Amino acid sequence: MKERLKAAFVTLTVIFIVVLFSNIAMAEDTINIYSNNQKIEFNDAKPVKINGEVFVPARIVAKALNCDVIWSSALQNVSISSYTTKLSFEMNNIMAVKAKLSGSGTPIVIECPNYPRVINNEPYVPVRKLAEALDYTVGWDGSKNAVIIMHSESISYAGSKAFSTFAGNGVKQRHDSTIDKMQFLSPSSIDIASDGTMYISDDGVIRKIKDGKSETIEFEQSYISSNVARCYGNDIYFLTNAFEDKDNMKYYGIVKLSGKSADGVFITEAVASRINDFQIDSKGNIYIIYKNIGVGKTYLGKLNISTGNVDYIQEIDDGFGCMAIDNNDNVYLGNSVKGSIYYYNVAENKLTLCAGVDGQTKFVDGNIGETFFYEPRAMEYSNGYLYIVDYNLVRRMTVNNGAALNTETLAGKLTAETDPQTVVGSAKEAAIAPSYLMDIAVVGERVYITDPKNAVIRAID
Questions:
Q1: Residue 427 phi/psi, 5° resolution?
Q2: Dist CA 195 CA 204 (whole Å)
Q3: Cβ-based neighbour number of residue 250 at 10 Å
Q4: pLDDT in tens, 15-63
Q5: Single pTM value for the model
Q6: % helix, strand, coil for the chain, step of 5
Q7: Fewer Cβ close by (within 10 Å): the C or N end of the chain?
């Protein structure tokens, strides 16, 4: 009898543990939390999923969101305060309270059916309820297994811009026609030649648009595919994806398109290095953001065409991923990790901070010293302005020899969702789908951006 009771007890214990961990589950893949694009570091208390909802240790996350936090173990209550709002979460209570610190208005009750609770002596709260109650922008990025929280933004739109579809009909296949009927697979890099011809890298293939019609460019070396496309006058250069030779060695490089031939300008082993971006100045010099994998360092470099080597100009942070060149052939560099833009003066061989502050990532428009960036992913210089794809906003910064004078937003409605529904019309209401493949080109007052997720090219007027 005792053995039967013991076995029954063990069985019930196992069932209890299974049920418990079906409701409170540590995901096999760690759940990450980002505050303004900066990953929050956790100690032993980590985010968990409870009934499909992400819960976070309140004290750690509240402090990362620049909030004051008070935990009363006696009252089983955690109080979280931003500059404008105070929240009160009582453990095991489905009702939380939100109040404005200005004292105006009636406190608001926030329903938390999946209620706050104590886990391993730490107060946990549902992170979406917390962020939304603070009036922050919150979303889920499945590629990072992460909750994305954006806050402290101050966006100033430049007039009443229009956001439209310039080319492509959204069907994901490759088809040439007029710009309204043509189709893309995944348009990424874009540039415009002196004669007005638009070149696009579309899932490894070079496409061009001229006089309202598209054409797919085929070249003899079918094993070569395009990554980043750049124009110099009416010539087209592109950074290739990795390709294999007959000995199965992988190479990549920058080639110039000459008729149907892709002529190598710079070819090197793919295992040893990587080029994040490149631009060509008015003299034909090719500047690159170059990652030397062997030594684990990133450089601003210049291709030496005569030797086929890279001349290192200056070691730079690994976060630099995009660049632009101004009318004086000086270089702007965007750091997508630290949210800053730097300026390299060629004559002085000097790299200086132009805008933003390293590590202080947020969306803030303004005048000198007031501008902040969240994640600059692509840039283009034109007529005294630096145009920036900053996560899912298109921003314009007035610059003068490396000095940032003023920044404003041209298009984009801030969203932390990675695949929002994009609607054409008012530029400030357009929820642009963010992508690391996006690129930007400017002609006069018109701005073009690629939209790889929706397989079209957008225009901002």
A1: -65, -35
A2: 23
A3: 13
A4: 444 444 445 554 447 999 999 999 999 999 999 999 999 999 999 999 9
A5: 0.88
A6: 10, 50, 40
A7: N
